[in-house]
Amino acid sequence: MRVMLLETQLDTDPTSDRTEHRFLREFFENFGDLDFIAKQIHSRADLEKFLTHARGRRRFDVVHIVAHGKAGRRGTAIGLTDGESLDMRRGDVQRMFSGLKVDALLLSCCQLGKERAIMTQVLRLSGVAAMLSYSDDVTDYQAFLIEALFYHLACGYYRGERSDLDWREVYERVKFGVDYLGIDDGKHPLVDPLLVAAFSEDLP
Known about the structure:
By secondary structure, this protein is α/β, with parallel strands linked by helices. It has a single domain (2-202), classed as Rossmann fold (3-Layer(aba) Sandwich). The chain has six helices and eleven strands. It has helices spanning 21-28, 44-54, 91-94, 116-126, 140-155, 167-180, and strands spanning 2-7, 35-40, 60-66, 68-70, 77-79, 85-87, 102-108, 130-134, 157-158, 161-162, 195-199. A six-stranded mixed beta sheet has the order 2-1-3-7-8-11, with helices on both faces. Strand 9 and strand 10 (161-162) form a beta hairpin. The protein is globular.
């Protein structure tokens, strides 16, 4: 399994330790031969560079982007370092994800998942099998727990053997676990989940 984490600087304080790559690096040490690459993305140029790398010869299983996100009447955007914003409604921004040689795209960004039409369009352009994001604001605590559960099911061990669950089954089990463990504090976490997914097999 190969995972590429692309993470923006979440706090303006350069000494801030608010980061996910340290947590995941230690977490993945339990996974044996998993290949983990973590890079910082401070600008659109950074994101484009590493997405280009993800199109290279060696296929990644997951590209995981950690950034601020927002959705609503004023726009749907990924927020990068120093306030730079990528409007996900724009065709040129969506095309940055085209032709990715990855199985799953995980956007760990608040609110982006509520814009299902945008998720579907990025899914179609990227050619990935599954795309996941959050439908509302998510805390660091929630994100770490949800994403640890996701990687446990997708890349770890299940019933003593290396996981062979498909992406839909991984997602359904994560969704159930998030509800059962009380990670999602919404009123109807199974009907209106915090983590949402779209699958290429469902595209018209």
